[in-house]
Design brief:
Radius of gyration: 36 Å
Largest sheet: none
Mean pLDDT: 93
Number of helices: 37
Distance between the termini: 126 Å
Helix content: over 70%
Length: about 750
């Protein structure tokens, strides 16, 4: 028969439970503490342990984590003294969950191992308890990034719960295994595991579990870029979450829908969805969900060109992943942070960040993140003029993407290799890469970055080949695609490309307007490199207009931008233009220094056409100085580089179009040879051009020069008049002998 003290203890315990259920936590805690004291005085250590364990639950609800852990530890001691190993194991399991919540992974593992030991000590083992332990240990190993170990533990959990005939927990374990299979890109197996879990949840009317399984299936189709199916599953998850007020399930679905929208190019919709998810995760104090969402927001805002905000949210995500020791998220977020830093012009910092992402991805065997980091590293190396290292990174990324079956990623790597080939004067190779990239983009049914990028690089190739009409079409297509897909960075680059075409055609006013608009866009995008390129374009327009002082100022402004970002490609182009501006204003010594610096950079970068242009301009200075032999040598080297590039193209018509751009170079070489009394060599040189590009272009250049040679005037001596007339006569003969 129960004593009066027992009745009072039980009454206080029940009052504590009732208050807990009503959300009156302070009253619950007070009642449970008193009940525990009474039970201990009665020597009922099991009931005392129950009171202390319930108090720990109350403290956990109040987010008093350390106090909760202490209470569970006290409960364990009471259960041990009472000889109740199962209750002790349950308390140890709860401690493990709390320690893992605080990212104290080693402490969590100790608690879980203690729980496993206690459950194993039961006669015949306690399958239910062991299932709970190994499932928790699987989560722990996943958090650490130990994918293989987590897989084994989840499989063990499935077996334990099956033996215990606990279908719900078995479904939970199966769903966790599906998460692992999805990360390993074993999509068919993962989808089957999610579906099996979903069937159980629906049969048992576990709507919460069903929502999680639907989101898992949505993630599989998202990873496979099957966007319609992905959106359907995420949308279903959101709809099922609302009636049961499952805010985390709704957040998971909204975040997934945001990622689908971002891939579709619906950036504003993606932003709204991610912000809604972030609010839900924040309200529920879900650190992992908040980190995931901040990473996605970083990606979205980077695409929108809001780089400072993108950097802030991405860093916030990275801090959260590190705080909870979630290494899988760290790798992807670090790669994203590298992209932002590169876009902002912090190339050295970006390279360091990409290396960190690459190391993390290697350890996690995450080839997708490895590929992204390699592409980013390639871009940094390209901008720094380290073309060999850039090519290695692009090719390695391409190999990874091919193994993963990521055709859009393969296409992006091929387009970047094509861009590198254009830069290096390998125009035939560039054409081949673009053709391969186009075949990989065609089957893709959703907008991808590689599409406008492909058109952009096609425009660059055609501009280099001298096909201005098609180049403008290529840049125009890139601009239209980028605008349609809400890729403002690519749209601005395409606009700058169109401006360069106008500049090459001598349409200076149109070029100036486009470069000015491109600069405005790059400023909004916080793109240091982009703004530098646009300012350089404006400087080149001013050179064409012979506004030398303004051109020098603009060149110096562009150089500042490129120096800030360590962009050696931009520095080389700027030094060449600065030399032209200085030569135009008559400061030949400064011009020569500028050209020397440009030549050094172009040779370092293995950029043959940039070197050819610089040698041509250096030759012009030698001509002004009357140093014909040096000028001839520079013209010869420039021609050799031009022809080296020309021979990389396989179509004769491309040779013709390409070489016509260099009519003035060949004409100046021929004229210089005539002035050096080397008429036969002049004819050979001029005829080599005419055989490919036709005689008219070079003949017109020679004729134009003839008309500038003075053959009369009081300022000339008779000898000078006679020499000039002889020169004009011989140049005329040269023209007539061209076939």
């Amino acid at each position: 028969m129960a004593t009066q003290e027992h009745v009072l203890a039980e009454k206080r315990l029940q009052e504590g439970i009732a208050a807990y259920n009503d959300g009156k936590m302070e009253i619950a805690a007070e009642a449970l503490i008193e009940a525990e004291k009474l039970f201990r005085e009665l020597g009922d250590l099991k009931r005392a342990g129950d009171c202390r364990s319930l108090l720990a639950d109350v403290q956990r609800e109040n987010n008093l984590i350390e106090q909760s852990i202490t209470s569970y530890q006290r409960a364990m001691k009471l259960y041990q003294e009472a000889g109740r190993p199962l209750n002790e194991a349950q308390a140890a399991l709860a401690i493990g969950h709390l320690e893992r919540q605080q990212s104290h992974l080693d402490r969590a593992q100790e608690a879980y191992e203690r729980a496993r030991e206690l459950y194993s000590s039961e006669k015949g083992n306690n399958a239910q308890g062991l299932g709970n332990v190994v499932l928790a240990l699987g989560h722990l190993e996943l958090q650490r990034g130990n994918i293989d170990r987590a897989t084994v533990l989840y499989q063990e959990a499935i077996s334990y719960f099956s033996n215990a005939q606990d279908s719900i927990n078995e479904a939970d374990s199966r769903q966790s295994l599906a998460d692992i299979l999805r990360l390993a890109r074993r999509f068919d197996e993962a989808a089957e595991a999610y579906r099996q879990a979903l069937e159980v949840y629906q049969e048992k009317r576990d709507t919460y579990g069903a929502v999680d399984a639907l989101s898992g299936l949505g993630r599989i189709y998202l990873d496979q870029r099957r966007l319609e199916e992905s959106a359907d599953y995420f949308g279903d998850a959101v709809e099922r979450s609302r009636p049961i007020e499952y805010e985390l399930g709704e957040a998971d679905g909204n975040l997934g829908l945001s990622e689908v929208a971002e891939l579709r190019g619906q950036v504003d919709q993606a932003l709204t969805g991610a912000q809604l998810a972030l609010q839900r995760y924040t309200d529920k104090r879900n650190a992992l969900g908040t980190a995931h969402t901040n990473r996605v927001l970083g990606e979205i805002n980077m695409r929108r060109g809001q780089l400072s905000y993108a950097n802030s949210t991405m860093e916030s995500a990275l801090r959260a992943y590190k705080a909870i020791a979630y290494r899988i998220g760290q790798a992807e977020t670090t790669a994203g942070l590298g992209d932002i830093q590169r876009r902002r012009g912090f190339l050295a910092t970006a390279l360091q960040t990409y290396n960190e992402a690459l190391n993390l991805a290697n350890k996690l065997q995450d080839e997708l993140v490895e590929s992204r980091a390699l592409l980013g590293m390639g871009e940094v190396y390209r901008q720094q003029g380290q073309t060999g290292q850039a090519a290695v990174c692009y090719r390695n990324a391409q190999d990874h993407m091919e193994q993963l079956g990521e055709r859009a990623g393969v296409a992006e790597a091929q387009v970047l290799l094509a861009q590198l080939a254009v830069f290096g004067g390998q125009l035939g190779e560039a054409t081949a890469y673009l053709s391969k990239a186009a075949s990989n983009i065609t089957p893709v049914i959703y907008p991808v970055k590689a599409s406008p990028l492909l058109s952009l690089v096609q425009g660059q190739l055609l501009l280099t080949q001298g096909d201005f009409v098609q180049a403008e079409e290529g840049f125009g297509a890139a601009y239209k695609q980028a605008e349609g897909q809400q890729e403002p960075q690519l749209a601005a680059e395409a606009l700058a490309g169109m401006a360069r075409v106008k500049l090459s055609q001598g349409e200076l006013d149109a070029a100036s307007t486009m470069f000015t608009e491109a600069r405005r866009r790059f400023q909004l995008l916080e793109s240091t490199d982009g703004e530098g390129a646009a300012v350089l374009g404006i400087a080149q327009v001013l050179i064409g207009q012979e506004r030398w002082d303004e051109a020098v100022q603009r060149c110096e402004e562009a150089l500042t931008r490129f120096n800030q970002s360590d962009n050696l490609i931009g520095q080389a182009d700027t030094m060449l233009s600065l030399g032209l501006a200085h030569r135009g204003d008559g400061t030949l010594e400064e011009a020569a220094t500028d050209f020397e610096q440009a030549l050094k950079l172009y040779r370092q970068q293995q950029q043959p056409l940039g070197e050819a242009d610089t040698r041509y301009e250096r030759a012009g200075i030698f001509l002004v100085q009357g140093n014909l032999a040096e000028a001839r040598e520079e013209f010869s080297r420039a021609i050799a580089l031009v022809e080296q590039v020309m021979r990389t193209m396989s179509i004769p018509q491309q040779w013709r179009t390409f070489l016509r751009q260099y009519a003035e170079l060949y004409a100046q070489q021929a004229i210089t040879l005539v002035r050096l009394q080397q008429d036969a060599q002049a004819l050979t040189q001029a005829q080599s051009f005419a055989d490919i590009a036709g005689r008219d272009a070079i003949a017109q250049q020679i004729k134009a020069y003839e008309e500038t040679v003075p053959t009369s005037g009081e300022e000339l001596t008779e000898d000078e008049i006679r020499e000039n007339k002889e020169l004009v006569k011989r140049l005329g003969q040269l023209r007539k002998r061209l076939r």
